[in-house]
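[agent] plan:
  1. take the single chain provided in the ticket
  2. run structure prediction with default settings
  3. attach C-alpha cells to the ticket
  4. add a short note for the reviewer (M.T.)
[agent] executing step 1
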Amino acid sequence: ETQALLTEFDVNHGEFHSSVLRDVDRAVKAGRTKKTSVSGAEGTKGEDLGWEPTKQDRKSRRDYTKERIFTIDPTTAKDLDDALHVKLLPNDQVEIGVHIADVSHFVKPHSAVDKEAAYRATTVYLVDRVIPMLPKPLCEIACSLNENVERLAFSCVWTMNLDGTLASDEGSGKKGKKGKEKVWYGRTVIKSCARLDYSTAQNIIDGKCGNPEETDADISEELWPRSRRPTGGHTIMEVANDVRLMHKVAMARRRLRFDNGALALHGVKLVFRLGDDNKTPQLCEPYPLKDSNRLVEEYMLLANFLVAQRLITHAGGLALLRHHPPPLEQGLDEVAQVAQGLGLHLDTTNSASIQNSLRRISHECTDDIILQGITELMMTPMQPAEYIAAGSVEDNSMWRHFALNIPFYTHFTSPIRRYADVIVHRLLQATIDGPHAVKEYYQSVDEISNVSDHCNDKRMASKKAQERSDRVFLSLYLREHPIKSVMGIVVSVGEKSFTVFVPSLGLSTRVNLEDHEHLIYEPIEEIRRKIIVRRRQGGAGDDNDEGRPLWTGGSEPLEIRVFAKIAVACVCKETSPI
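[agent] step 2 finished; step 3 output follows
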C-alpha cells in the first residue's frame, strides 16, 4: 500500500544521487568535526553531530551564541528548522527572535543538491517513514538547530508590546504613536541551549515544572526529561520564565489576530505509535493541539508576515508569496443553509464574519459533535493556499491571505523541509545586500512563478500521500482493534448515499445504500434532503459478505439527515485495496 501511494503521488524519490551527496560533502567539509552530542535527547540518540561553523562562516554574521535560545518541536523531530529567544525590555516591551536554519548557506543555486531539492520541493512525512527534501548531513546535522552546538541561522528579530502589538521606532507603538516597526533581518550564529518538546513546554506553561524555588532535582523526568534541560550555563528557571513570557505575549497576539478577522479551522490529525517492526500500529489517537503549539505558531506566523513585508517593499515583483484565495461561495452558502436549519446563523461574508459566527455558535450550541460537524463542512469549500510570484498577478489583492486576513504572507520558517522557503531566504538576503543584488538576482519573475507552481504541485501530492498513509495505518489499526460503536455525524445527504464524519478519527466516509441489499431507503425532499432507512423484510442479506452486521436498528426506521448523530462501527476491509 505504501509503495503504491509513493508511486501514485510521485513522491517515491529513492536515495539521493551520488552527485548530490558529493555536493553536500563539499558544502559541509570545512566545518567537519569529531564532536558528538552530549544530550542524547530523543531524535539525536547521541549521534555524531559532526559540524560547526568556521571562522569564514562567522564573518558578517551577528553572534547570538550567548543568547538563551531554544527549540520547541514534536518529541521525535530530527530536522529542527526554528529556534526562539525572548528578552524582557523596559516599557513593557519584549524582544522576540525567530532563528531559522540557514539552508541557503549550504544549498547554492544551480548546484546538484539545489536541483534535487527544487525537484522534491518538500519533505514527505508518512506514518512509517520520512522522505526528506535534503540529505541527512544537512537536514539532521549541519542545518538542524540541535542543542549545545553552534549553528548558522537566518534570523528575524523584532520588538513587541506585551499586548501583542508590534512596537515602532517612534515611542512604544501605543495609540497615537505610529512609526516603522522595529525589525532586524540578518544572518547569525546561534547556540540552542535546550531541545524542548511541546509536552515539556506545556508542562511549563501549566506550572507543573520550572517554578520558583524548584531545583533541578525536584523536577521529575516525566515532566521535564533531563535530556531536554538547558545547557551552557542557562538554568531551568530562566528557560521556564522565557517560555511563560513567550506564552503570555503569544496569547495576546493570538487574541489580536482573531479580533482583526483571522480564521482558524483545524481538522483532526491522527498520530500513530508503531511497534518494533515499524509496521504495526499499537496506538492511534487524535493529535492534541496545546497552547505550546499555539505559542510557536504565533511567532512563526509573525516572522513569515514580516519577511513577506520586507520582500514586497524591497524585492517587488520577485517576492515569493503564499496566497490563500477566498472559499467557494456556493459551498459556503450551502453550509450556511444547513446551519440555518438548526437555527444557527452563519455569516459567510468574509473571514472575520465566519470566525465571529463560529465563535458565537460555539456559545449558542452546547453540542460539541454538532460544532465539529459544522467545522468539517466549512473545510470543504475552502481552497488551498498556493505560492505565487508577486509580479505574476495583475492585482495586489491576489497577494492576500484569506484565512489570516492579511494583505501578504510568505513561508520563511521551514527551509529544511520546504524549497519555497529556500527561495525566500535567498531573496531576503538580496534585499539586505542592497538594490543592486535584487536587480541582479539570478531568477526572473517568470522563473519564480514556475518554481511556485512546481512547489504547489509537490505540496499537494505530499498532502495526499500523507493522508493516504494515515488511512492505510488506521486500517491496519482497526484490523486488530475494531471499533464496535463510535459517534458519527451526517454531514451530507444525497438520494442514495450519505457522508458520515467521525470526529474521534477525523474521518469522513461515504455510505452508498445501494451496496446494502438488506436495506430499503426512501429519499425525501424537504427544505433539506433526508433519507428514511429501514431493514428489508425477510432477513435476507442481514450481514455483508464479510460477516459483519450493517444495520442493528431492528424494525425501527432510521432518519438520515444532515447533522443527525448516529452510532457507527469502524472496521478494516479484509480484501484489497485496504
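[agent] step 4 note for reviewer: The radius of gyration is 26 Å.
[agent] ticket updated
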